[in-house]
Amino acid sequence: MRKLSPARSLLFFLEELEYSEAALSADPLTTDLAPPFHSRTEEWNGVFQRERLARRAVVRADAVVAVRNNLLDTLTKRFSAVVLAEAGGERKSSFFKRFFAEAPSDFIARPLREQCERTRDKLIPEIEKQPDDSPLKSFADRLRAHVKDALSALTARAKSRGENASAADDVTDWKEGVQKLRAVTYAELLKIAAE
After folding, report:
1. Lower CB density within 10 Å: C or N end of the chain?
2. DSSP letters of 125-188?
3. For residue range 149-186, what is the model confidence (pLDDT) as tens digits?
4. Distances in Å between the alpha carbon of 45 and those of 6, 42, 48, 130, 174?
């Protein structure tokens, strides 16, 4: 008896189960061995659905993170343009460096979580120190909202990845159960053949 590769899809395993169930049901000597295959086939739908929903959640969470990252990047670029204008076009001025120790393009190229933390912990407090009539002041609330949304998206993505890993474990367990069923059935078939 050949062992099925665990890397094969759930659909492949389903087809193997259905084939085996039909074959066992067709022979009067082996019909008693078919019901466990039917039971495993019935379980397949739930396992497949959970895996599909978990994968879907990860894909959707990745999309939300990408959009939130883009929104934060776009606002940060606008903000850096206003900072540069306020600094008289001098990137090396002490005023510009209060906000950006590095080029704004390098700032937004950082991993999203790090960019959010730096925005929250460095940029926003520095913006809030500005005079009320500063054009920079209006960016504080918008940056804070984008940071909050981006961090929420990262948390949701981490959660969906955890659920996806759990669903993948369920798939592995189900496949291992199919492998054991096939091995036990093969041993029973050998007994029938010996008789």
Report:
1. C
2. HHHHTS-TT-TTTTHHHHHHHHHHHHHHHHHHHHHHHHHHHHHHHHHHHHHHHHHHHHHHHHHH
3. 999 999 999 999 999 999 999 999 999 999 999 999 99
4. 18, 6, 5, 59, 11
Task: Determine the residue type at 184.
Answer: V
Distance CA 111, CA 119 (A): 12
H or E element that contains 41: helix 35-86
Q: Say if residue 91's pLDDT is above 90.
A: no
Q: What is the enclosing helix (H) or strand (E) of 78? A: helix 35-86
Separation CA 107–CA 109 (nearest Å): 5
Residues in the chain: 195
